[in-house]
Design goal:
261 residues, alpha+beta, Uridine Diphospho-n-acetylenolpyruvylglucosamine Reductase, domain 2, Uridine Diphospho-n-acetylenolpyruvylglucosamine Reductase, domain 3, Uridine Diphospho-n-acetylenolpyruvylglucosamine Reductase, domain 1, 3 domains, four-stranded mixed beta sheet, four-stranded antiparallel beta sheet, 6 helices, 15 strands
Length: 261
């Protein structure tokens, strides 16, 4: 294994923010992934897994212990309608693979910048359902997801491919990939978080440093240049403070904060 030290993590996140990892291993298959996990365990290192880095804000001071960048990608069909897929597989690749083999269901998750492991761990929501609705079983090593068996629906994928493209076209106009995705969960029984931030708090487009509440979607914070985690968190705190003052409650974070803040 190529074990590196003090590797900046910003390039491995969608928002391009994050300080260095004490130790860093980039894996490309499940065997390497398990070996990296064993290395961390053997050396008593706290382990953090990075897939796409699409829903995690990493501290400017970085992460202690071992960070494993998981790019283990493999897909195979069995039992006619099931796919075994490695956890580091890009969700977009899995969607294309399943539709090319006339297995339906995952098209509703188009344009979500996640690996399969991240999709399972976060139980991401699509247009109609959650990712867990398609999970048949999970292979783990020390509680880390190695691979997943998905149960899909056989059928003609022509319409499903059209739906996936329509979702991509619609989302790409308002949801920047240079972000962490939705910052806050939509509050139950209330307007969506992005609508509240835009139309009731009037914060869309507001900036702290190079971190900006997206001009096209109030629930996305984008990096317009050299934003820091400190900038990003300041915007989150601003929204939370104004929510508390105006409405008496705070949004629940959808992203995860990693490291010391």
């Amino acid at each position: 294994m190529d074990i590196q030290q003090n590797i900046p993590l910003a390039p491995y996140t969608t928002v391009k923010i994050g300080g260095p990892a004490d130790f860093f291993i980039h894996v490309h298959n499940s065997k390497e992934f398990i070996e990296a996990l064993e290395y961390g365990q053997k050396n008593n290192l706290p382990v953090t897994i990075l897939g796409n880095g699409s829903n995690v804000l990493i501290s400017d001071s970085g992460l202690r212990g071992l960070v494993i960048k998981n790019d283990s990608e493999k897909m195979e069909i069995f039992d006619e309608n099931k796919i075994k897929v490695s956890s580091g597989t890009q969700l977009a690749h899995l969607i294309n693979y399943s539709l090319d083999h006339n297995l339906l269901g995952l098209e509703e998750f188009a344009y979500i910048p996640s690996t399969v492991g991240g999709a399972v761990a976060g139980n991401i929501h699509g247009i109609r359902s959650h990712f867990s609705d398609y999970v048949d079983s999970i292979e783990k090593y020390n509680d880390f997801i190695i691979s997943v068996n998905l149960k899909l629906t056989p059928g003609d994928s022509t319409q499903a491919k059209i739906e996936a493209q329509e979702i991509i076209q619609k989302k790409s106009q308002i949801q920047s990939m240079l972000s962490l995705g939705s910052i806050f969960k939509n509050p139950e029984g209330k307007d969506p978080a992005g609508m509240i931030i835009d139309q009731q708090l009037h914060l869309k487009g507001y900036s702290v440093g190079d971190a900006q509440i997206s001009p096209t979607h109030g629930n996305f914070i984008v990096n317009t240049g050299h934003a820091t985690a400190k900038d990003y968190l300041a915007l989150i705190n601003l929204v939370q403070s104004q929510m508390q003052t105006k409405f008496g409650f705070q949004f629940e974070l959808e992203i995860k904060l990693l490291g010391e803040f």
